Amino acid sequence: MSRYLLAVDQGTTSSRAVLVDAKGRIMDMVQRDFTQHYPKPSWVEHDPRDLWHTVLDCCRQLLQENQLKATDIIGLGITNQRETTLIWDKHTGEPIYPAIVWQDRRTAEYCQRMAESDPKLEERLQKKTGLLLDPYFCASKIRWLLDNVPDAKQKAEQGQLLFGTVDCFLLWKLTDGKVHTTDATNASRTLLFDIHQQQWDPELLKLFGIPASLLPQVEDSAHHYGETDPQWFGGAISILAMAGDQQAALVGQCCFESGMAKSTYGTGCFLMLNTGAEALHSQNRLLTTLAYRLNGKPTYALEGSIFMAGATIQWLRDGLHLIEQAGESEQLAREVDINHGVLLVPAFTGLGAPYWDPDARGAILGLTRDTGIKEIVSAGLQSVCYQTKDLQKAMEADGVRPVSLKVDGGMVKNDWLMQFLADMLGGEVQRSKINETTVLGVAYLAGLQAGIYESLDDIAALWQQDKAFTPSMDKSKRDFLYSQWQQGVKRIQTR
């Protein structure tokens, strides 16, 4: 009898394969890092072969180390870095160009020109897709590929090419080219998908000059997508779920009721609030997106996206060499006063929500002769919390406030950071016992499709809290620190 769910998490800097049992316990994990490519300033690329081979290697090693066969796996779920864009040849399966990563800003000027040519365009885009006109999303990336890769436009018009986000590309590879499908959460990040009609929008395809033949079929997040080709794992494994990484984390945190929210602190930071059956239209430049779609019924979310969270600490480690390991940051922050006067605004690839300024660039402000490593590292950690506060304020201006905030991701192990986050938000922050909520979420979706779980209530019963952080800072101090942050952001804004 099959015993485990297999979750694949293809992220921005690494790929992972994780074994999860029916009670939501993580049994084992294999992870592989891969190279980031920066061919020009503000360009970020991945080699698609790295994405595929790290996933394949992780899965194979995980099965081998646990002496498991394909028949021991109930089903496989795929979660992925969103908005990262690939186009490949329909017949050979070969990508026509490296994957353009979600962080990439090469199409900023293109998006700016579109916005200037039609002042009402972004409003129309937001009504249909819930998104803004920004290089972050797939549409302008697809357009760039068609315009800049030799023969791509002609081949696309002839139906010889296929587009996909990373989930879709991996599904294509795992099924040996038999299935070209994505799920509704990933489709909702393309700027081409009408989230109300739940279909690709012909007007938007025409606007961006993208042939419909490029696009995958769209299915529910829990769905039988096909089976892995036996050549990969010695037998077929049913692929039963797909979801973008932030939506998967929402499911993993069991935020199934309207008003429940989670914030994930990985490379970037993503605060997502469940709004139920209502697609809430943000007046404050937040995104309306699909939280998940089950049995054809969409559940919506309001989302704020921050591009630099863990990536800021990586920069302090790898770029400035101020620390050797990310874990050192907690102790250094404890050794300085919270109000040390230094601000780090990590706009290395522009500012995300609610500013959406792709041309802004990072800055360290408030330096004095006494400033040292501790102050700069502390400022890097604090920037993550200030940016989360930006998102909270935008949500409140839209008339919603999270009834609870559950946190996950690599950074939440830092108790100092979580306490400062609770202080800045002025509310309780709940850290879950299992931090790997992204893989857990897509495993839950696969289990739901397999019938292991009868309902979302069955899944919600599995959630466990590790620790809760409650605010201990008085409001006047919180407001003063946040006002300093706001002044710092104004110094680097370009629009």
Automatic annotation (TrEMBL):
Chain positions recorded as ADP binding sites: T12, R16, T267, G310, G410, N414
Annotated Carbohydrate kinase FGGY C-terminal domain residues: 262-449
Binding-site list for sn-glycerol 3-phosphate: T12, R82, E83, Y136, D245
Similarity section: Belongs to the FGGY kinase family.
Protein's name according to its UniProt entry: Glycerol kinase
Domain Carbohydrate kinase FGGY N-terminal, residue spans: 4-252
Enzyme nomenclature, EC number: 2.7.1.30
Residues that bind ATP: T12, T13, S14, T267, G310, Q314, G410
EC class: transferase
Top-level division of the source organism's lineage: Bacteria
Reactions it catalyzes: glycerol + ATP = sn-glycerol 3-phosphate + ADP + H(+)
Described purpose of this protein according to its UniProt entry: Key enzyme in the regulation of glycerol uptake and metabolism. Catalyzes the phosphorylation of glycerol to yield sn-glycerol 3-phosphate.
Regulation of its activity: Inhibited by fructose 1,6-bisphosphate (FBP).
UniProt organism field: Bowmanella yangjiangensis
Keyword annotations of the record: ATP-binding, Glycerol metabolism, Kinase, Nucleotide-binding, Transferase
Pfam families given in the database record: FGGY_C, FGGY_N
Gene3D superfamilies in UniProt: 3.30.420.40
